[in-house]
Design brief:
This protein is an alpha+beta fold. It folds into three domains: about 1-145, Rossmann fold, CATH 3.40.50; about 155-230, Sandwich (Immunoglobulin-like), CATH 2.60.40; about 240-295. Helices cover about 30% and strands about 30% of the residues.
Length: about 300
């Protein structure tokens, strides 16, 4: 999972990572964090000054940390997952007692924000503190904003052709360096993908993405290139087809021959049954003899 997330972020994905729920969030305590974590390691603490919040960075412009609710659960301290240090590319965004509890930044082509406090639980416990809601709002705007994105312009770069259900072609009107192509159709291992250029046809690997949809990592694409998804029967499909044909033949034969067909089938089944019984008896007899020999000591 870590390798998948690392690759996802490097290639332009955005992730919000919370480790603020002890024993529930899987990585609330970790000795050596993966490369894409903004932190080096994590440990649990309940010894933070409940109101010593500070915010930093343009991501949190307009957020007043002085209005945050205290880090308390009734009379008990509200625990948090805190790092021993940050990665060089990460920026501290929220601190408590000068210890980072929210940090993040750009990783590869993507973005990640880590939080050591369970903000959703904290906001709920303190009647939807508006400043904490604003904090999360700013974080998600940073993570998922689309700069200079025009949906009509982007979709017009591609034309689709689908004359048959088992083959779909996407032609690119303009080129790009690299990227992910996400097709919202169910993944199946018998689907194949090919990138067809003027003088070449390259097989592309299809990954399972999201709720079992298809994703292809594309290299540099030139205007006029075509991405083809094509379904071809693999071994599973061939076996399923054979079973279907045999079943159909038996049903048709029964409809034509009726009771006449039942007798030979019953005789064949009876013969196989006798063979199986005799084999079973011989096998049990051999096991019994072997068991007696093993005990003869």
């Amino acid at each position: 999972a870590f390798k998948l997330l690392d690759r996802y972020i490097k290639e332009g994905g955005s992730v919000y990572l919370s480790t603020g729920w002890q024993f529930v969030d899987r990585d609330w305590e970790i000795e050596k964090a993966p490369d894409f974590f903004p932190v080096s390691s994590l440990s649990w603490t309940s010894n933070l000054n409940s109101r010593d919040y500070k915010t930093k960075g343009s991501i949190l412009d307009g957020v007043d940390s002085k209005k945050f609710s205290p880090l308390k659960w009734g009379d008990q301290p509200w625990g948090a997952s805190v790092p021993s240090g940050l990665k060089p590319w990460a920026e501290r965004l929220v601190t408590v007692s000068d210890r980072p509890v929210v940090a993040g930044g750009s990783y590869g082509k993507g973005k990640i924000i880590w939080s050591g406090i369970n903000w959703f639980g904290h906001i709920s416990a303190y009647s939807n503190n508006p400043e904490e809601v604003k904090l999360l709002s700013n974080i998600f705007k940073f993570l998922f904003e689309k700069e200079n994105f025009d949906e009509d312009e982007d979709t017009s770069m591609i034309t689709m052709k689908r004359d048959f259900p088992d083959k779909v072609e996407f032609s690119f009107r303009s080129g790009f360096n690299s990227g992910n192509f996400y097709l919202r159709e169910s993944f199946h291992p018998d689907w194949k993908a090919y990138l067809v250029s003027k003088n070449s046809k390259e097989k592309m690997k299809i990954y399972k993405s999201g709720p079992l949809y298809k994703l292809v990592n594309l290299p540099q694409v030139k205007a006029g290139d075509t991405l083809i998804f094509e379904y071809s029967n693999g071994l599973r499909g061939i076996i399923a087809t054979i079973i279907s044909l045999v079943t159909l033949i038996i049903l048709l034969a029964y409809l034509i021959l009726g009771v006449k067909l039942i007798k030979p089938i019953a005789e064949i089944a009876s013969a196989y049954s006798r063979i199986a019984k005799n084999y079973g008896k011989r096998h049990v007899s051999k096991l019994s003899v072997k068991a007696n020999e093993d005990e003869d000591y």
